[in-house]
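Help! Submission page says 'invalid entity' but I think these are all valid:
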Amino acid sequence: MAESRSAILQGTLDLMVLKTLEQMGPLHGYGIARRIEQVGEQALVVNQGTIYLCLVRLVQKRWISARWGTSDNNRKARFYAITKAGRAQLKAETENWERISGVIGRVLQPGN
Amino acid sequence: MRTLLYTLIARLREYVRPAAGEADFDHELEMHLAMAEEDKVRRGMSREEARREARLELGGVTQLREAARAARGLPWLDTFWLDAKLGGRMLRKSWGLTLVGGLAMAITIGLGASIFNIWDTFAGTRLPLDEGDRVVAIQPFDRAAQRFYSTTPLADFIRWRETLTSVEQVSAMRSIDRTVLTRDGAIGPVRAAEMTASAFQLARVQPLLGRTLIDQDARIGAEPVAVIGYQLWQSAFSSDPAVLGQRIQIADTPHIIVGVMPDQFRFPMNQRLWIPLRAEPIGDAGSATDVFVFARLAPGATRASAQSELATVGMLPRAAVRQTAASLDARVVPYAAGFFPEVHANSWAGSLIFLLGALFLIPPCANIAILVYARTVTRREEFAARTALGASRGRIVMQVFVELLVLAAGAGIVGFLLARQFSGRLSQIVMPMLRPENLPFWMDFTPSLFTILCAAGLSVLAAAIAGGVPAFHATGRWRRSGFGALGSRGSGARLGKTWVALLATQVALTLAILPPAAEMIWGIFRPTIIGPGLPVEQFLTASLLMEGDTSRFNVLTSEAVRQLMSETGITGVTLSAAKLMEEPAARIEVEGRPASDDDARFNLVDDQFFRVFGARFLAGRTFDARDFRPGSTPLIVNRSFVTEILGDGNGLGRRVRYGRVEDSTPLQPPPGWNEIIGVVEDFPGSNDGPMMFHPMTMPTHDVSLTIHAASGVGSAADRLRAVAARLDPQLRVGRLRSLEEMYWQRRSLDHTFGFVLGSVVVIVVLFSMAGMYTLMAFIVAQRWREIGVRSALGAQPRRLLGGIFGRAVVPLTIGAFVGCALALRLHSWLPIAEAGGRSIPGIVPLSAVLMVLAGLLAVAGPARRAIRIDPTEALRVT
């Protein structure tokens, strides 16, 4: 099983976190990690700790904002939400990703 | 870019207050683990297993904390600070290196920054006008002679004003000195500008009172009006608020005052009075006027686009205007460069000065680099330990670089303070000589931000050369031989061919600059040592000028001279157009020789001039009565003229004429060819270079007068004032100064330059010696055991000494030979005599001998240490 799981491509974690926050609305770090694992259907190896480092980076860039709140199970947690600049960045990054993945897909198509 | 800025701000905030961020992060991780654990327990895991699984999924908490800390704050600043502290400690430990290296760096950086500051001051990069960087000058450029002219025919100005679109408020001005008469009496002469009204709009400065000039003021038949400066308003009108509408007489014409400009407004250059310039196409007379043209770049236009447009418009055909050069085109140049074409023609000078400063840094830094290399090698155990603990090569190089950066930063601060001090001293000397009222309004010798940046840049460069290079070199060796071998004694640290080549280069360069520098220093201090050659304290100089009706000026000055000569104690009185040491310079052409860039200063003098100064004639004769007749064109030149310009013979019979002379030159030389009839020995006022004297006929309204009074100049001044007052109250005496004061003021600037040059030479020589000493000391330390063994086996001290000196002889010999060749080349290439230097016979071989002796002296210390090595002590070292 472990051999069939893929590591996250370098630089794509930011994109996944931004997309998760855009879709799900404000979430805490554990929620983001769980969501990415669920969407990845256990096929992605996510080192959950690195998500927190990614969140630090995104807050510094003002692509996401952070505030303290209370979780479903009544715990004090830090909630992250995507900002306007973050949405713009997500749009640009998504277009870029689609372009690159399209090219790679075409290159890897059988017969090419 | 904005994202980068936000990140920087966030990191800075967290760097200042790290505790809050760390606590938040810890809390988040705790919550994460707790939530994950609960989740897993809900899914059926035991609590123990769930906790373990949650921790595994999260990763190492300590590493995460470290990574988050690095991502949040400014970790490199911490590292830098740590290295800087360590560097400070190392520098305190190696105080010799700190003192010598720091001092050399400080002087070099100070020198580089000072030169840059002077250039920056003249270049006027800080024009104190609204959007001053968009103000430009438009000037003719002589392609053949590769030089700019500051003034342009009025006809070209009119055409440019009407056609150019990439520049706006195209303006013109002529600078004139005019005597001004107010109701309270005469003032003068006052520096005035005949200027188009658009120039005031261009300057964007509002008048303090009234209005500025308007276009209607320049129309034919318009009533003459004037705008006065703040200083004139204060001094001549006692700051009278009702000054508007009052009349002043400028030259012979009454003008109505329509405005007063604020304090500090001296636009376009250093003017205090402004009258309209009639810039209409009024026929040949108007077209013959030359004006300084300037404008403001239109919105969106650049200097390049304005230049492109100007190139298509061009200048009028030469036949229609008064130009002598046939290959002129127009150029758009920065405003200040319009007044100092040399600065613009050498616009690369700023970069070159920085480059020169950097080159100056190489000799001292190369020596420090050798010292640092030697020290880095001796610190190999320390670096081996650091490597074992995971430090990379880059990290070690960075550590040594930062250590040296601490030294260079200190040196940079001292260097900047030195530059500031030097600038202050320079302005103290230069300002009175140039007279502050004559300086351009933007000229300020206070070091600017650019100068600070220049000093900072040179400091970083110094650290890179002195610290980065040797550390890189040393660690490179270790990398090749394996860092693991660092801890063991005798690991291969050698001063290889690179350093020997560096030393040879340094000896060569030092030797190359020694002869010209020595000749320059001798040229500077020789007049101080041998004296001015005449009793300067017995001479008084003054200006005589006439206000109002000047028709009797000639008669009155002749009478003043006659009366002064009859006074007891006064042995001579002479008249000249310009004061001694203030003579203007002009481009000249010698008959029968191709056109060149020769410049000479000139003066118009009376028949008593050479007798009063006791000037010795080397050839020919002095002026006599026939030389003052109309149509006569005799010329007397000084020795420097013959040696520097003519080069051969005594010059008698040769003919010289002037090239194009700027209208702004205060004195106009005689037109046509002038024949040399006499050659006079250099004397004060003419000992700074080639000098030409013409007979002066009929001064019109002002003249310089020099009195030779053996009894002292104090009483002569009183007598001159009394004679002038007695003859005519309108005959004014101004700018009374003794020749002694003028002479030593001029010399003090030379002295400052001489001391700076001398200090540089001494430092360069000392550093060559220090470099040689370091090389030898290092070799002796490296070969300690080998020398000990050889000594134990019975080697004679003479042989040991030979071995040590032999190592020094290689770079010394190579350096001496290359240096001699370079020195001879430089000697013939540099215009030493023109720059004020004086030839010293045999200076090149003398410098070579001195350099070799200095090198051998530097080696003596380490050599002595080598023959004193105790064999038993050396053999005990493993």
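Support: the input was valid. A stray whitespace character was the problem, and the output above is from the cleaned input. Residues 2-73 of chain B form one domain.
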